[in-house]
Amino acid sequence: MNTRILLIEDDEGIVRILRRGLVYEGYTVDVASDGQTGLLLARDTPPDLVILDLMLPGIDGLEVCRRLRAGGEVPILILTARDSVDDRVLGLDMGADDYMVKPFDLDELLARIRALLRRLQPVSRPKVMRFSDLTLDTGTRQAARGARVISLTAKEYGLLDLFMRHPRQVLTRDMIFDRVWGYDFGGESNIIEVYIRYLRQKLEENGEPRLLHTVRGMGYVLREPD
After folding, report:
1. Are 176 and 220 in contact (CB under 8 A)?
2. pLDDT tens across 160-192, in order?
3. 99 pairs with which residues across the strands?
4. Facing residues of 28 across strands?
5. Smallest Cα–Cα separation from 51: which of 89, 2, 10, 93?
6. Is 0.70 surpassed by the pTM of this model?
7. Considering the chain, what is the average pLDDT of its residues?
């Protein structure tokens, strides 16, 4: 079932931009132009996430946020022109999960939405993933090539976990940035290459065949040795 997002916003231009971007990403979008309508929509068609403007006609955004939070744990992302620290603190105190100031970058907004939705995903039971002679234990967060145990840093584990969940699938740089580093990453542009090199050194330490391959101009893939 598609993820449903409720957009409570009275600026028609912003609604057009957000609706188009969200629908393109595969979300189902409901729109309300005032607080009262937004609350009714949230009650009658419960959303998976709410994007909420603060300056709304009728019931203002802070009161809408308070009522939504009182009624459940739906993630709330406030989107507003109010950029003072006091406004941000007040919005978060009312129960918002995140806060963005207009004008905003659509790609960053989409990344924040993905991050909020990931928090809702149930924690899965530890399991051991296998590919060729490589294993990854999600409980101990250790990898192994055959009987050789490989200790991983947090980022190395996150990167290998992503590849193990998508074997034989080419993963682009953008996908890796989003899934492993998150929307707030602001480091060097070659960080992926650096960590791919770290992983290869550990996975091939005893001369084992390469499993993590570069697909030139596209990204990286976990596949059987050449």
Report:
1. yes
2. 999 999 999 999 988 888 778 764 444 456 788
3. 78
4. 4
5. 10
6. no
7. 86
Element (H, E) at 158: helix 154-165
For residues 20-30, average pLDDT: 91
Tokens 């603060």 found at: 54
Question: Do the Cβ atoms of 75 and 99 come closer than 8 Å?
Answer: no
Separation of alpha carbons 52 and 14, rounded Å: 12
**Residues linked to residue 142 through DSSP beta bridges, in sequence order:** 137
Per the listing, tokens 């059987």 go with: 224
Buried b / exposed e over 111-144, threshold 16 CB at 10 Å, is bbbbbbeeeeeeeeeeeebebeebbbebeebebb
Enclosing H/E stretch for 115: helix 106-118
Using the 8-state DSSP alphabet, how is residue 180 labeled? Answer: I
Cα gap 41→113, rounded to integer Å: 19
Neighbours of 71 (CB within 10 A): 12
The whole-angstrom separation of Cα 166 and Cα 110 is 22
Query: Can you tell me whether residue 194 is helix, strand or coil?
Result: helix
CA dist., res. 117 & res. 19, Å (int) = 18
Burial of 83 (0-12, 13-18, 19+ CB in 10 A): exposed
**How many residues can be counted in the chain?**
226
- Apex CA 41: angle with CA 38 and CA 44, to 5°? 150
